[in-house]
Amino acid sequence: MPRTSPAQRTLLYSLYCGVSRLIAPLAWRKVAGKLRGYGLPEERVRERLGHASLPRPAGRLIWFHAASVGESLSVLTLIARMGEQMPEAEFLITSGTPTSAELVAKRMPPRCRHQFPPLDTAAAVDRFLTHWQPDLGVFVESELWPQMLVRARKAGCPLVLLNARLSDRSVESWKKRRETARYVLDQFSLLVTQNQKTADNLRAMGATDDCIQPGSNLKAVSAPLPVDKGTLSKVREDIGTRAVWIASSTHEGEEETVLNAHKTLLMDHPDLCLLLAPRHPQRGDAVEALVKKAGLSCARRSKGVMPGTTSQVYLADTMGEVGTWYALSPLVFLGGSLREIGGHNPFEPMQAGAAVITGTGHYNFAETYAELTGLGAAVEIRSAPELAGQISKWLEQPKGLETARAAARQFISRQSNQLDKTVDALLALLPQQGGRDGQG
Q1: Which among 404, 401, 405, 395 has a CA at the least distance from the CA of 242?
Q2: Is 71 known to be catalytic?
Q3: In angstroms, what is the C-alpha Rg of the chain?
């Protein structure tokens, strides 16, 4: 049951509230400018001030707040499962980026809607809460906005931190302000952690044992990425019998390593095709220039060109098609890891049946990769020769590749067993009498 006696408000929290009020006009101009630059209508831009662009539905409303694309998409399977158990429940997702809003809109389960979150100021948060009146608030990963938490709790909304993940730097910073950390964490009725390290960190920050519960990584139990079967069929037909490997979610400074590895691979596998999908498709021109500088032939997806039987690199510089590419080949290198970027979600390629290769700069998924490499479901590399060597090994030893893929499937299956436990824990926090009349 939700606790009724949170820790006492601290001077630091009061200072934060004061500063947030002073800088609110500057923060508003910045976030509004980004949203307008994306071409969003003013009605949606004003959601950041707490002005809802949709009516509140009648009945119980469960609110999920996430940071961006990955966190937003990770809760969709959970929402769908909750919706099955509570067919009368309604759902609200808030996230801060236009990209997340766009993707969530395409994939959201029934009885679900998206809004941008209010700025963390008293006026914006209160306006948001007055309209939506959520019966339960679920914050995903590390989105700890102090005023949003405190004011939602004060309004009678039980709060959960789900899929909790905190960087070492963030933990050390909070530990220096332990009373304020305890005050913020005490707004939560439940803290569901990804791993033991996070649980220990939350305790060190002041969280109480009775609020901490182990859970799985939500990204491991999310629904597989969508696959456009028509596109997949066309690309397969165009490539023909050529083998393909994928380098996905690469960042600036990583494509050079990938392309050097591919040049090495072409010596022994001259028909091999690299499908290169940069994390940010707007970098397409820059990445194409790198491909040409490496002396490799290139077909570019955003220009409507198919890879054919001779293109050495297929540059997939488009949004929302990664699931289709993962269905094309089980050989996946996942970027954001050759530099200290933090890595990207390894569960998406594994859910598509792939084995994963990663660099060592995956600190956002450190414990996950430690388990995956221990199981043989993922392999770490540090250089172009190592990357080429691993791809070559799996091309030439298909039994080894299948062993890695089987280990990945087993890992995903174990994580999925935690989903129902998480649903039960969340539903138990809903007030016995919930639901409000819809707002006009």
Answers
A1: 395
A2: yes
A3: 23
- Residue 192's DSSP bridge partners are 213
Domain boundaries, the chain: 11-215, 229-416
Q: Do domains 11-215 and 229-416 have the same CATH topology?
A: yes
Cα–Cα distances (Å) from 154 to 141, 198, 210, in that order, read 22, 26, 21
The neighbouring-strand residues paired with 112 are: 91
CATH classification code of 229-416 = 3.40.50.2000
Cα distance between residue 83 and residue 327, in whole Å: 29
pTM above 0.90, yes or no: no
312: amino acid identity, one letter: Q
CATH of domain 11-215: 3.40.50.11720
- The rounded distance, in Å, linking the Cα atoms of 374 and 367 is 11
CA distance 301 to 307: 8
> Do 111 and 91 contact (CB within 8 A), yes or no?
yes
Q: Which of 42, 43, 47, 71 is labelled catalytic?
A: 71
- State the Cα–Cα distance between residues 160 and 158, nearest whole angstrom: 7
Model pLDDT for residues 323-382, shown as the tens digit of each residue: 999 999 999 999 999 999 999 989 999 999 999 999 999 988 887 899 899 999 999 999
Look up residue 356 and give its DSSP letter: E
On whether the CB atoms of residues 258 and 250 are closer than 8 A, the answer is: yes
